[in-house]
Amino acid sequence: MSKDTYFKNGFKSVREEVKQDMEQQFVSETVGELKSNNNIIFRDNVEVHLAKDFGFCWGVERSIAMAYEARSHFPSKKLHITNELIHNPQVNGKLQDMDVNFIPKTGGLDGGKDFSGVGDGDVVILPAFGASIDEMELFDSKNVEIVDTTCPWVSKVWNTVDMHQRKGLTSIIHGKYGHEETVATASFCETYLIVKNMEEAEYVARYIKGEGDRGEFMEKFKMAMSDDFDPDKHLEKLGLANQTTMYKKETRAIGQLFQKAQLSKYGPTDVASHYMEFDTICDATQERQDAIHDLVSTRSSLNLDFILVIGGWDSSNTQHLLEIPLNAGLKAYHINEGGCISPDNKITHRAMDGEIVTEEFMGKGKVVMGVTSGASTPDRAVQDALDRVFLLKKINPDLQ
Ligand code: SF4
């Protein structure tokens, strides 16, 4: 793409104005108070413990700033985004208010979209989790300007899978095959297989060791493999990559599993040419996961009743933050905005299996809660949720 129509560093001339706008929109007094009080506050009979690391990561802030800057830099042009900029309803709503068009999805799990509304001279913003090579080629063929907000951590994964391909390895991508970031990563690979969890990885490892059924394998991974994938040929030399927001411990365990499988098949002398791994999980994801682990580990000393996890329901990194307390047997609720907590003491939340459920929320008397938020969640959303919790405790006589 020509340098004149491809922007990947934002627009300096409008940076200060956008910075102020973002501060007004996202900064939270309550979160500020928590931070200056050792991450603890007590209000209306609710004790809140905020995770040490939470909320907006560097890549998301950068992506939002670049999108807002694009709007100011191209005030009269038609702007499109290939997908949600990040998985956050408030940020995406704000972009719609700024007259930024979200390219509609055509359904299906392959990331299909309807680009017919993108016309000559328009501006297209690529989100933090990037765009596929097919999309980039399409834009190249149209006369559009590109504002690329892809997070450098995501680009790092692309570089890794590119290196796999050049070395003749099959890229095993630990990710979700319908997720935009994984769709983009897979588009950089000639040969790939996507495994979403340990169960699927164990299935593949058994196949490597000669214990699988080819027909069943092909059926199981039909949506998650490159077109020409042949498990009898393409599992010989493997490289591991991941969707940046996956659960890091699981990526590690999957890596060890494949390394062991290759070791048992090819022996210690040859294993290095049959398995390759680089750490491509971004620090932000890891820090948020560690912080929630820390919070969960103090559950007994703090008498934690539950953990509130705030973030978009489609946000993969937020979903993993929910899994940590739930897997440790601690009650936790994943909500996507404060509005999920209603005045009749009900909470609407996303369960670990993805179902959205509504149930009774808090009990009587003092409540001790932990709180965290995903990497695409502004502090203001945390404040909205906490304000609802405080208000509920204050005004509902059944909860006193
Ligand atoms: S979570 Fe990591 S990879 Fe994703 S936008 Fe943030 S810094 Fe980038």
From TrEMBL:
Co-factor(s): [4Fe-4S] cluster
Record-linked InterPro entries: LytB/IspH (IPR003451)
EC number: 1.17.7.4
CDD domains xref list: lytB_ispH
Protein name: 4-hydroxy-3-methylbut-2-enyl diphosphate reductase
Lineage: Eukaryota, Sar, Stramenopiles, Ochrophyta, Bolidophyceae
Enzyme class: oxidoreductase
Domain of life: Eukaryota
Pathway: Isoprenoid biosynthesis; isopentenyl diphosphate biosynthesis via DXP pathway; isopentenyl diphosphate from 1-deoxy-D-xylulose 5-phosphate: step 6/6; Isoprenoid biosynthesis; dimethylallyl diphosphate biosynthesis; dimethylallyl diphosphate from (2E)-4-hydroxy-3-methylbutenyl diphosphate: step 1/1
Alphabetical keyword list: 4Fe-4S, Iron, Iron-sulfur, Metal-binding, Oxidoreductase
Family indicated by similarity: Belongs to the IspH family.
UniProt-recorded Gene Ontology molecular function terms: 4 iron, 4 sulfur cluster binding; 4-hydroxy-3-methylbut-2-enyl diphosphate reductase activity; metal ion binding
UniProt-listed GO biological process terms: dimethylallyl diphosphate biosynthetic process; isopentenyl diphosphate biosynthetic process, methylerythritol 4-phosphate pathway
